[in-house]
Amino acid sequence: MDFDNWALSAAVFIPGIGALVMLLIPRTEETLLKTVALVTALVTAAVGVYLLVQFDYDNAGVLQFTQDKEWIEVIRSRYIIGIDGISLPLLVLSMFVVVVCIIYSWDHIPEPGNPKALLMLILILEVGMNGTFVAQDLILFFVFFEIVLLPMYFLIGVWGGEDRQYAAIKFFLYTLFGSALMLLAFLALFFKTGAESFAIAYLAENAGDIVHSTQILIFGGMFIGFAVKVPIFPFHTWLPDAHTQAPTVGSVILAAILLKLGTYGFVRIAIPILPEAARDYAPWIGLLAVIGIIYGALCCLAQTDMKRLIAFSSVAHMGFVMLGISTLTDFGFNAAVFGMVAHGLITGMLFFVAGSVKDRYHTLEIARLGGMLKQAPHIGWILGFCAMASLGLPGLAGFWGEFPAILSAYNPASGLSEETFRTYMVIAAVGTVFAAGYLLWLLQRAAFGEPKEEFVHDGHIHDMGIYETIAWAPMLLLIVALGVYPNLLFRVTDDAVQAALATVNGIGA
Amino acid sequence: MHVLAQLAADFDTPHVDYHALAPEVVLTGAIVVLLIADLLFDERTKWATSSIAGVGLLAAAVPVLTLAVDGVDRFMFGGGYAVDNFALLLKALFLLSGYIVVLMSTHYVEEGDYYEGEYYFLLLTSVLGMMMMSSSRDLISMFVALEFLAIPTFMLAAWRKRDLRSNEAGMKYFLLGVFASAVMLYGMSLIYGVTGSTLFSEIASGLSGPDSDPIVTLGIVFVVVGFAFKVSAVPFHAWAPDTYEGAPTPITAFLSVASKAAGFVALLQLLFGAFQFRSDVWQPLFWVLAALSMTVGNVIALRQTNIVRMLAYSSVAQGGFILMPLAVIGESDDASKSALTAVVGYLIIYAIMNLGAFAVVLAVARKTRSGEISSYGGLFTYAPGLTLAMTMFLFALAGIPPLGGWVAKFVVFRALLDAGGGWAVALAVVGGVNSVISLYYYANVAREMWFRPVPDGDVTPIRIPSALGVALGLTAVAVLVVGIVPSTVLDVVDKVDPAVLASP
């Protein structure tokens, strides 16, 4: 029995075991609970490092560390897991973000306290996130995709802001609606391909025979499921509420990982399995993507709350990712995967900063902030750094997600209208200008100038604490590293992207 | 005298397979022991009747197990009474749900100062009726089984006799139950009139002709309507919320799980057996019943402030989910098989989730003495274990992985899409939308427990009696295991072969 076969299962279920262990520890043993959570996350991350080392980068397009075991024989669903170059970065990102969040939580347990429940929920979330990225069977994917709902519902609802109850249920209802239709689409796929298997690889091979009009319907079901999660305009309305109300770590995980489950679904499932339907949908997905870019940016300009602004910037950024995906080219897909990782790091960081600002100023109203560079210079500079990264400054990670995505629209896959996509390209490029606008304006209002009267003598306001430093440093380093040497990631994703697009390129124009 | 002697000489002693009847015989024995014990025990030792009932139910499960291991389909009384995989699986379900209900009742009945021995006697009698129901392949034995299981529950619903609402519960249930029986019996008589037989297999061949007789249609509709009352499908659900709210809580759990399951078992046997060639008549009927039950049940459940009423409407909606696959039975062999798996699988999983939810309701009511959803406020702060359990049951009912309920919903959708076709897919979409609506009211209770403060500031912990604790533990573990390893249920359900129901 080779560890390679079990590495992925370990990556998925170690957090679950950690959560179970924590269940047995009394609530008052806070330090012990935090230690157990951190050790669990670190062990999981160590498995991630093992995967990074052992991964065969020359065959990144082939599923590796695969395991295929009996699960629900009656419905022909099997426990099939494996990763390729698209899943690997997202899986590792998920493990990494969880570690960072637990470190940050060490002295940042939001009201009403209870680190035991908070950390357990984060670990259960990790089970769902890691599982989604490794699942190669649609039912398994569905189960993991849904596991994240409950913990996130409670994270927002228990530890969130004033409107948390509304935000929590809205998040839950929206995503559940999407996934109900997605499940029906999965079942339709299963029966239309001869009721043989739910394995993604099998379906990608055999779904071509489905009647075209049925393909369109099935893709529509999956589209709604994933689009709500991304979220694509006009399915995004849950996102600003959820993000604004969620506690800091909730927002970070939501932005960094949960949104990627949707885009990952497009790249891994919807498009490779139904390439013909994807081609019909692509111009519309592209259209919604650029609407999202412009709409998100305009909304950002109108926000008075820092966290809500960052939330809307997510809508815009995911628009770039979706634009890259909608081109159905390897260039666009690579940009999209890069964009997912970059957005995860950068927006995650922005939410961390927002959380720390909230801790100190007890408000996130931009008009009341100011002079952060004087009162808490490190936090102020990090905010500036993240804003730069987020607006796509070359040399930082954000650039490599945005710029190639725009560029890919210049030359979409054969069969897609060049005029349409070039129009999208221009609109998206305009969107980057808006992005620079709202981010720099945010920076100017929040960080520059003199501190406001009410906060000048506030003893609460201090610079970065030790846990913030430990948690943030690796994220900032990665943003720089990926920005300076993007090949770090492109080298991993490229082969896998080619493989994912094989079916798309396989059909005649 | 002479005539009688002649008749007796002609009488053929029917072949009785005692192994096949062993579960019923053991349970009857337990019922007799229970009655005698009730006579002999004085007030201080009456609690033992609950143990006798529990042991009796478990003992009756032993022959079910040996029969399942034996694996031979047995038929008696000219094919009117069948002991096959289908019957055995459902007998096991009824016995185990009965056992959980006994565990839930133990302290409730004891502390509430109700008649104890009689309570368990009636409960076990009703279970016996359900066991007979799962073997009935004949209109008469089915009707007898139905009355057998229903009449004790009329009395049990009114068990809290000093409470007006409980009286109302029993009365309403009784009147509507009898009315439904009458309608059903009328339908059965019409079918008997046309086919000249009460045996399902003979009715099936009698109805297999190409021309459709309006009397047959009428008969089938009446029988289905009768059972629609039993499973509280909209628009025949009016009795359910009042009865559920007024009845003693363990009995409510019993009615919403076991009694409802018995109705579905009867429907399955009728649809796969007697009416198998008349799917054109009943398929649209079930389409409408399913869509209405889900939608109406869910929408009304949204407005409830009492947890038992909420669970009552939720059980109407869940009934709608179980009705969905019935609308595609007969589309194709595969679809029929999927539908059978879906209904039986759903019944089993639903029993686990719903019994668990009611067990929590019982436990919480011991402290709060209230059924209002608002009394669950802040439960997490003083009863985290119960909160966790209730959260699991509620979200299982909503169908959220990794809790058991998703498997139930999944197999139902699978059956519909297996049949394919516009109507089936449309019904699946209605079901999908409804599963989202239902989340709102289940999550609403979770919201009270987790996000809200304690309403009266009283945070003394809840003491859970051991029997109730066992019931909670069993259901909680089961709901999680089924959700993560669905094969535990589905592999067993898959062994049920629709062909056995079709032609005994």
Biggest sheet overview of chain A: 2 strands, antiparallel
- Tell me the strand order in the biggest sheet of chain A: 1-2
Order of helices and strands of chain B, N to C? HHHEEHHHHHHHHHHHHHHHHHH
Strand order of the largest sheet of chain B: 1-2
Helical stretch tally of chain A: 22
Mean pLDDT of chain B: 91
- SS field, number of helical segments of chain B: 21
Specify the structural class of chain A: mainly alpha
Which stretches of chain B are poorly predicted, pLDDT < 50 over at least 5 residues? none
Q: How would you spell out the order of helices and strands of chain A?
A: HHEEHHHHHHHHHHHHHHHHHHHH
What's the rounded overall pLDDT mean of chain A? 91
Report the strand count of chain A: 2
Distance between the termini of chain A: 46 Å
Report strand % of chain A: under 5%
Verbal overview:
The complex is a heterodimer of chains A (509) and B (504). Chain A is mainly α and 509 residues long. Chain A has a domain at 274-500. Chain A is built from 22 helices and two strands. Chain A has helices at residues 3-24, 30-54, 87-105, 115-134, 138-147, 149-159, 164-192, 200-206, 212-229, 238-245, 248-273, 275-302, 306-326, 330-361, 372-375, 377-390, 397-408, 418-447, 453-456, 466-484, 487-500, 502-506, and strands spanning 64-72, 77-83. A two-stranded antiparallel sheet of chain A has the order 1-2. In chain A, strand 1 and strand 2 form a beta hairpin. Chain A is globular and about 70 Å long. The model of chain A has no long low-confidence stretch (mean pLDDT 91). With 504 residues, chain B is mainly alpha-helical. Chain B has a domain at 280-504. In chain B, 76% of the residues lie in helices and 1% in strands. In chain B, strands 1-2 form a two-stranded antiparallel sheet. The mean pLDDT of chain B is 91. Classes of the chains: A mainly alpha (509), B mainly alpha (504).
